[in-house]
Amino acid sequence: MTDAAPVAGSPFGGFLLRRTPLGRLVTQVARLRASVHQKLLAAFLLITLLFIVMGTLSLQSLAQISRQNVLMHEAHERVDWSLQAEKTFALQMNFTAMALLRRDEASIEHILRENNRFSETLSQIEQAAPPEERGIIQRIRAAQDRAVDTVADIANLVRDDRIDAARVLQLQTQYPLYQEIQGLIDQVVAAERARMDALRLAMESENRHAARSLALRGFGAVLLAVLLGFVISWSFILPVRQAHDFLGQVAKGDFSGRMTVPNRDEFGELAARMNQMSAELARLYEHQRQSAAELQALNHKLEAASRAKSEFLANMSHELRTPMNAILGFLEMMLDEIYGDVPEHFKEPLRDVQTNGKHLLRLINDVLDLSKIEAGRMELSLAEYSPRDVVDTVRASLQSLAAEKGLEFATSVAADVPAALGDGKRITQCVMNLAGNALKFTKDGRVDILVERDGESLIYRVRDTGLGIPQAQLGHIFEEFRQVDATITREYGGTGLGLTITKTFVEMHGGRIWVESEPGRGSTFSFSVPLRVREGQP
Ligand code: ADP
After folding, report:
1. pLDDT one-digit tens code per residue, 17-46
2. Ligand 1 pocket check for 523: Cβ under 6 Å
3. Is residue 538 reached through a cis peptide bond, with omega within 30 degrees of 0 on the bond before it?
4. If you measure from the C-alpha of residue 442 to the centroid of ligand 1, how many angstroms do you get, rounded to a whole number?
5. Mean pLDDT across the chain, nearest whole number?
6. CA 257 to ligand 1 center in whole angstroms
7. pLDDT score recorded for residue 8
8. β-pair partners for 459
9. What percentage of the chain exceeds 70 in pLDDT?
10. What are the distances in angstroms from CA 458 to CA 16, 414, 498, 515?
11. Which position among 256, 280, 470, 480 has the lowest Cβ density within 10 Å, counted as fewest Cβ atoms?
């Protein structure tokens, strides 16, 4: 992993991983079959253990130093005691001389007291002395025993007032004993001093050694901790970085990559999941690509079918229109009795035929318009037209229908409405559709057609007091073949195409259409178109 692994951003880390055995170590740690939690816990425990070991070693060094201090102190004590003994013996000698001079009991007691003190000090030295000094001390004790005897003799002689004999004893026995003891004590002192010197030297060297080894061990422990931190952290960082790059590739839509991490922990599982995810994404992407291709092919087919349908409808409607017009023409002439008298009972069915024929023709015209629009063959023929003429034409066509239904039918064109530029025929068709609907869906009341100017636009309104349209339907009535209520339409007739065609013509002029309505109170359909439609608009 380490060779291929991305280590950008950490040049030093990358160098260590590639050029030293650390890389292999990181891989080994990653391969350990343990969770991240366990690995981290183990690393922390190991570091804690290191510090405990370091602490123990330091404590051991301290104990060693304090042991040596005790030894040094003991040697000091022994030297002190030796000097003390020497001094006591000197005092003993001094008091002996005093006793010889003063010949009193008090001086003798002083001698005996110093003698006792000497004995006690000697016992202390003997107890604390190392084995090699025991021989000298025994010799001191032997000399002391003899000195005790001599002192006792000298005391007795003094008490007996035999001063000369006492002096002779002092000079010939006690004094040489004193010199012998002094010599022996000097030997003890010299041995202890030598021991102290050796001890001091040993202590100094041991202290140096302890400090050096402590520093080395401390350095080693820190190095080990850093190493451990490095290895454990990189065993986690490498898969994270790989995941980062891998996800970057996936985000760019490249699903060909695979994550290969040696980790057998959560990161290993994560990598496996990511590979699964990438494979699944690749599968979905491929599926989606195929679906899109199929959809596109289907779309092409649908477009072709729709075009064929529109062509067929346009041709059909065109072909149907001519005979239909002829039928209506002959019917008109029959009803006008150009071919002779029509019996009264024939007139009613003939009128029904005429009404249905007209309806059929309207339907055919609407289908023709719609198929032309769908086939993209509908074009406006722009020219100057008079909005007033538009309204008059519509009124003339629908006047009789309004009168038949007993509806008031009024038109009003504002005085400031000028001649306009647009397709007058199509605008007339729009107003006709709206007014036709208004008359159709109004039982009583009135229908008004209004035209006004709004800046550079013209607004045509058709207002009725008819059925109205429920709020929920208002958004749909401009869609093809939409009728609010089929039963009503059956009663009034209609194709469901009029509003669609009207909306298309208005939008082709660059305008818009809208409706306000309240069920039971009537509707107002309005559309606005530019006063002067420019070529190529919208
Ligand atoms: P249709 O030939 O059915 O009239 P349209 O596209 O012209 O087709 O109208 C669609 C539907 O909108 C109608 O069937 C009717 O339900 C509703 N509608 C249109 N104009 C009016 C109106 N003035 N009053 C009430 N409903 C209307």
Report:
1. 888 888 888 888 889 899 889 999 998 999
2. yes
3. yes
4. 11
5. 87
6. 60
7. 55
8. 452, 528
9. 95
10. 81, 10, 21, 16
11. 256
pLDDT, greater one: 423 or 3: 423
Following DSSP, what letter does each residue of 305-333 receive, concatenated? Answer: HHHHHHHHHHHHHHHHHHHHHHHHHHHHH
466 lines ligand 1 (CB under 6 A): yes
Using one digit for the tens of pLDDT, what is the confidence trace for 63-95? 988 888 888 888 888 888 888 888 888 888 888
Compute the distance between CA of residue 124 and CA of residue 81 in angstroms, rounded to an integer.
Answer: 8
Residue with tokens 């000094």: 133
CB 431 near ligand 1, within 6 Å:
no
User: What confidence score (pLDDT) does residue 408 get?
Assistant: 96
The verdict on the CB of residue 430 being under 6 Å from ligand 1 is no
| Cα–ligand 1 centroid distance for 349 (angstroms) | 27
- Shortest-distance Cα residue to atom 18 of ligand 1: 437
Number of alpha carbons in the 13 Å side-chain half-sphere of residue 267: 28
Instruction: State which of 429, 449, 477 you would mutate to test the pocket of ligand 1, scoring each by most atoms of that ligand within 8 A of its C-beta.
Output: 477
For the entire predicted model, the pTM comes to 0.49
pLDDT tens-digit map of 285-318:
999 999 999 999 999 999 898 888 878 877 887 8
DSSP 202-223: HHHHHHHHHHHHHHHHHHHHHH
Is the minimum distance from the CB of 267 to ligand 1 under 6 angstroms?
no
How many angstroms does the Cα of residue 102 sit away from the middle of ligand 1?
Answer: 160
The contacts of residue 283 (CB under 8 Å, 6+ apart) are none
Tens digit of pLDDT for each residue in 213-236? Answer: 889 988 988 898 898 889 999 999
Q: 405 CB under 6 A from ligand 1?
A: no
Nearest CA to ligand 1 atom 4: 494
Sign of CA dihedral 343, 345, 350, 355: positive
The span from the CA of 204 to the CA of 5, in Å, is 53
**Intra-chain end-to-end CA distance of the chain, in Å:** 63
127: burial class by Cβ within 10 Å (0-12, 13-18, 19+)?
A: exposed
Place of tokens 């609010």: 484
> In order of start, what are the domains of the chain with their CATH numbers?
70-219 (1.20.120.1730), 380-530 (3.30.565.10)
User: Which atom from ligand 1 is nearest to the alpha carbon of 462?
Assistant: 23
